[in-house]
Structures
1.
Amino acid sequence: MVQVANDAVVLIPTFNERENLPSIVSEVLRTAPVDVLVIDDNSPDGTGQVADAIAETDKRLHVLHRPGKQGLGRAYLAGFKWALARPYKYIFEMDADFSHQPRYLPEFLEQIKSHDLVLGSRYTRGGGTHNWGLLRKLISRGGSIYARTILNAGLIPGKLGVRDLTGGFKCFRREVLEAIDLDSVESTGYAFQIDLTYRTYKKGFSIKEIPIIFYEREAGRSKMSQKIVVEAMLRVPQIRLKVK
Ligand SMILES: Nc1nc2c(ncn2[C@@H]2O[C@H](COP(=O)(O)OP(=O)(O)OP(=O)(O)O)[C@@H](O)[C@H]2O)c(=O)[nH]1
Ligand SMILES: [Mg+2]
């Protein structure tokens, strides 16, 4: 296997994040002993080329180019495979838009020593959101409660205690991703986050939620859509039935 600079790699999927990319990458690299993989879906705004230019000057940054926009889930699955082909122990998921603050990375790295999956959680004590409108809050909270209710049905005891199921700031031990049949994951969007956390739980791995404040993006455009919300709602019952 190839040599890597650090034990941990932070996967950052990007679609039109040109404004955010240089600052998020430099802040992540400055804050924690990690490598970074940018997974770009051929962003029309040239994010991929910006990433390539930074990678030329910093060996800790890697770039995976994909031919076109296929959604967050597909990008992460490609990133997981890339990371598992290298000797990384810890594999992070993180957004490019500063909603996930790099300052939390050291706490993740501390907790992942004793847990299999560490989740950045808005809905545990000390967590929250910053600058979110009421509608966005309701969708997110409602989504987590809805997913928890459906996924828990008939499962008590041994209950899925996770409070923030749609969050996307996560750190997996490599053993978790090796144990999951990645090729069978079909969800994209928010459903992807629910799906992976549920699979981790069903395999019996330990999950730890740590509080984070989630910041609304300041630069660039949101890719959140009604379609993603509807997909998540329809997928949850399927996840419950399919994932053993
Ligand atoms: N490679 C890739 N990245 C994507 C795709 N869709 C979203 N992303 C990235 O995934 C991360 C999360 O997407 P956002 O648009 O911020 O979605 P969100 O956080 O639900 O929405 P906001 O809160 O409004 O920002 C960002 O880094 C995006 O650039 C995609 O199809 N392909
Ligand atoms: Mg965002």
2.
Amino acid sequence: MVSLTFYGGVNEIGGNKILLEDKDTRIFLDFGKGFARRAKYFEEFINPRVSNGIEDFLQMGLLPDMEGIYRDDLMKMAGRKIVEPNIDAVLLTHAHSDHADYISFLHEDIPIYMGETCHLIIKAIEERSNREIEREILSYKPRPYNRKDSPIERKINTFRTGDRFKIGSIEVEPIHVDHSVPGAYGFIIYTTEGPIAYTGDIRLHGTKSQMTRDFIEKAKEVKPIALIAEGTRIKDEGREESEDKVYKDSNKIVSSTDRLVLADFNFKDVDRLRTFYNVAKENDRKFVVKLNDAYFLKWLSKDPKLGVPKIDDENIIIYVPKKGSGTYSDSDYKGKEEQFIDRTNAWTAEQIAVREGKVLCGIGFFSFTALIDIKPDPGAAYIHSASEPYNEEQVIDQKRIDSWIEHFGMNKFQSHCSGHARGKDLLDAVKEIGAKMLFPVHTEHPEAYKGTVPNITLVKETVKYTI
Ligand SMILES: [Zn+2]
Ligand SMILES: [Zn+2]
């Protein structure tokens, strides 16, 4: 009566798309973009064609080839049969692309459940970026594209931890977990056969590890018949890492220099954002954020629990990049950017340049052209606060970063705390929950879970597992 079918996140990190069926109720747990899968066929100069509707995505296995789940406009363009949607809901664990982005292709009548904070993050992402086919989570414009068409809004239901809600024959209990983005949840799903637990992405060494503990304890208490667990770093021994260490490392670097400091980190990681904001404050420097990241401050400061500074915070400066005319003319920033560039705390590279030792810039590799305008004095610090390269492309990117560092005579530092639990923490968590069956996902090494529980399924894609 109850089954699980995995359409993504199988022997790959991310791209989770897990179908849970209970009698007539059918829900997806996440509906993410599989980056490795996409990169197998596509790159910068070759992309799935929007002119072919959904067909390129289906043919190349980026999306499961199913009826009754996708948007009519894209199915029609692909010459596919249009049928009524037959999915009751999608439960989204968190706002990362590898869990959320391919909701973009789903039929608008399928309700999407997400945490309130997750909703704010997606709003920020969608306001700051141009509409594109792979990122239309909250609303979409029908294709073929017509400027005048108004967007079609999806049905979004938000929840907080402690809420419980029913979808057909199942009941869902979301429980907060700690991860490198706020508004992340695991789920306990009460089915007719018993409870199924799904971790989403978790860590136990972060600032809010208690939240993940809450999930583990609740999962253990309900005695789940099945556990779907992430295993990103299952093979990682783990080293000393914590947000506090990132703070201390960075503070040491910043306090011992009077030169420009750049910090390269993911702005959706609110812990990291707070870390660098505090390091800047501690060292009497202004914290400079990119124009593109100002949307995160705008939306995330609405949730007081996150402690995200407001756009008009006295320690925040917005970096306005050169555009259009190259003269910072008002007409270069028409549209949604207008709301930020008129502020007194909106600075150009030239304004930053005369205050090199008085700023900490949240400026990463993708904005390195700013350095051409800032012309930093030699000896500036570049703090890379993200994971170290782990595949070929990232090694190539790293070389490119190094060239810039060398060109401007900067010093490079590395300090990071991962969003994913270490191997031992994952093994302990899975043992503690003690589910009857384990389905590892979001990992290239599912077999590394052997020995934790008696019944482990090394998942095969599209196979239906009866629970
Ligand atoms: Zn993920
Ligand atoms: Zn994630």
